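Late entry, written up from scratch paper. The run itself happened at the end of the previous shift, but nothing got recorded in the book at the time, so transcribing now.
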Amino acid sequence: MSGPVRLQEILEDLALFPERDGKIEALISYGQEYQHPSPELVPRTPEHKVPGCESEVFVSSTPNPDGTLTFHYAVDNPQGISAMALGAILKSGLSGAPLEEVLKVSDEVIYDIFGRELSMGKSLGLTGIVKMTKHEAEKWLRRR
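Output as recorded:
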């Protein structure tokens, strides 16, 4: 997988759990790390809403002085533990990374994180979160 080093480290850590139960526990831990951002950081507007995501997820970013971004994920469904886990992983793994590296992240990264057993609906929603994150990076790259 290409992409930011921090995200690669998280993926390597998750790969240490060959059994599904262990990986689920690790993902639940990431979900518990999720912190709901303030509405000012993540506007609830159509341009920030992840299409097709059942957990009502919104993605935004704020610029850092070094030209990188800090990504923010608002998961409005309190039952959206997978979306919360992915938001925590992407925030940790992509915030502060060069934008060109963020754009290299494959949409398929969700399978590296959650496995291939995802339902079609869940995989579409989680892939949408990754795509929206990359869209945020593209927007900022165009502004340079």
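Helices lie at 5-15, 20-33, 81-94, 99-103, 109-114, 120-143.
(Scratch paper discarded after transcription.)
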